[in-house]
């Protein structure tokens, strides 16, 4: 079951709010409907957030992000549509029950920290637990532990004013963690921080997330931040969600011109990973085949080296044309002794393209992308890497069984492999085996 689910959510501000819903349902945009004297802030938002996921809501100021998140935690009642936290549907809960659900399930982290100025760091971190009337000893223990998680041990007795911005936001984060809820809602939580501090906080959040497995809905107007931390991103424009996808999906396949324009300046190398740019290996021989077969594959692909895989498609290494030709001349039947593991530089599918260049610099053959068991998933010729870095707009994703990509493909020594796709198929077949937050209340 999803941790958070929104089903056709609408929030329209104004007296005639409900009159606007049918119009919006018919596809009229926010601007049109404003003539009724209403402000449509969120229009037809449907999505689900899985447990342990970081779901980013991304959009320019005024696109409806804060309104959306306030409906998720019950601070705002939707004009239409439903919100579910796990199996609990928020609509129709009594005020008392809503408070309990909120306290037990959700913590908020705000842009301007919302710390209580006259309370110590420890008291601030323990605040949500105080509201819940937990015994003092337990409050203190949990607050201390949470402060430790965000690197603030030793600061317990200081006042917020004695802290830097980054540290204050760590207190905000500690307060949310101390509450022990499974869901964190973060509204522009890092937006007020300096870029370097902000990066640190992003890293810390990712690290905490991998350890604690919280479900996080993270709001930002900064695309780089969204791409850096989001497992998936919902792109909002004028109240509507125009696309939901991973950062790679949004970069590679923007849903419309708006999204395309939005992402055009993104540093792709810091978002795209090896698996997004890898191509189908063409010059590939099996370890069991002999030198003659290896030579044939290289000749067909007009390349000077080939990758060698075993029956399970695990990468053994690469063979070079010279050595193979010599072995053929000597009438040898096996590739034994000719396969060099050093020639094949391997990377994991999740390595960022930006980091691939370091590997690629000294590699004579394409980079081999392998899984944990060293199975060959794809290859990345240097020219592909350079294309990905230079211009991602026309970069088509190539999957391991995408034969159409073979025309762009290069073989181990970097030469063109034209008609190799269908040849490779036969090998594959035999082996067929991927705001204004300063005034916001502290959420109890
Ligand atoms: N309480 C409110 N009353 C009237 N309009 C509001 C209210 N809250 C937000 N809005 C309007 O709803 C739209 C979306 O606002 P908001 O959700 O704060 O966007 P974001 O968080 O993306 O900047 C804006 O046009 C804003 O002016
Ligand atoms: Mg906002």
TrEMBL record:
Residues 4-263 form the ABC transporter domain. GO terms for molecular function: ATP binding; ATP hydrolysis activity. Residues 410-426 have a biased composition (Basic and acidic residues). Residues 278-334 form the CBS domain. This is Glycine betaine/proline transport system ATP-binding protein. It comes from Actinopolymorpha pittospori. PANTHER family: GLYCINE BETAINE/PROLINE BETAINE TRANSPORT SYSTEM ATP-BINDING PROTEIN PROV, GLYCINE BETAINE_PROLINE BETAINE TRANSPORT SYSTEM ATP-BINDING PROTEIN PROV. SMART domains: AAA, CBS. Transmembrane segments: none annotated. GO terms for biological process: amino acid transport; glycine betaine transport; response to osmotic stress. The keyword Transport applies. The keyword Transferase does not apply. It holds the Pfam family CBS. One of its GO terms (cellular component) is membrane. Residues 394-444 are annotated as: Disordered. Belongs to the ABC transporter superfamily. Keywords: Amino-acid transport, ATP-binding, CBS domain, Nucleotide-binding, Transport.
């Amino acid at each position: 079951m999803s941790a958070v689910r929104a089903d056709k959510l609408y929030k329209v501000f104004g007296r005639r709010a409900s009159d606007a819903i049918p119009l919006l349902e018919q596809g009229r945009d926010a601007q049109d409907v404003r003539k009724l004297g209403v402000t449509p802030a969120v229009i037809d938002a449907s999505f689900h957030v899985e447990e342990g996921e970081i779901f980013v809501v991304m959009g320019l100021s005024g696109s409806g992000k804060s309104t959306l998140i306030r409906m998720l935690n019950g601070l705002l009642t939707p004009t239409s549509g439903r919100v579910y936290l796990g199996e609990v549907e928020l609509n129709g809960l009594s005020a008392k029950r809503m408070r309990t659900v909120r306290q037990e399930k959700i913590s908020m982290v705000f842009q301007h920290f919302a710390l209580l100025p006259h309370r110590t760091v420890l008291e601030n971190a323990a605040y949500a637990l105080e509201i819940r009337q937990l015994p003092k000893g337990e409050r203190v223990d949990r607050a201390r532990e949470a402060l430790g998680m965000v690197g603030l041990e030793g600061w317990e007795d200081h006042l917020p004013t004695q802290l830097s911005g980054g540290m204050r936001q760590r207190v905000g984060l500690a307060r949310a963690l101390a509450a022990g809820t499974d869901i964190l809602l973060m509204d522009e939580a890092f937006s007020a921080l300096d870029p370097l501090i902000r990066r640190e906080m992003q890293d810390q959040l990712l690290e905490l997330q991998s350890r604690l497995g919280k479900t996080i809905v993270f709001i930002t107007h900064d695309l780089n931040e969204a791409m850096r931390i989001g497992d998936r991103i919902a792109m909002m424009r004028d109240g509507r969600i125009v696309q939901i996808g991973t950062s790679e999906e949004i970069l590679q396949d923007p849903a419309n011109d708006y999204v395309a324009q939005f992402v055009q300046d993104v540093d792709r190398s810091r978002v795209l990973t090896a698996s997004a740019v890898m191509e189908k290996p063409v010059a590939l021989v099996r370890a069991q085949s002999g030198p003659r077969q290896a030579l044939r594959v290289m000749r067909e692909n007009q390349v000077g080296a080939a990758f060698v895989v075993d029956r399970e498609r695990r990468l053994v290494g690469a063979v070079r044309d010279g050595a193979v030709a010599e072995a053929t001349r000597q009438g040898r039947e096996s590739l034994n002794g000719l396969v060099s593991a050093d020639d094949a530089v391997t990377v994991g599918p999740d390595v960022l393209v930006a980091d691939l260049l370091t590997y690629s610099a000294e590699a004579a053959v394409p980079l081999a992308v392998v899984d944990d068991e060293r199975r060959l998933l794809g290859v990345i010729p240097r020219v592909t890497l350079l294309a990905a870095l230079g211009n991602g707009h026309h970069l088509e994703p190539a999957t391991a069984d995408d034969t159409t990509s073979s025309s762009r493909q290069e073989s181990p020594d970097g030469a063109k492999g034209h008609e190799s796709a269908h040849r490779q198929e036969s090998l594959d077949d035999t082996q067929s085996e991927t705001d204004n937050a300063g005034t916001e209340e502290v959420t109890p």
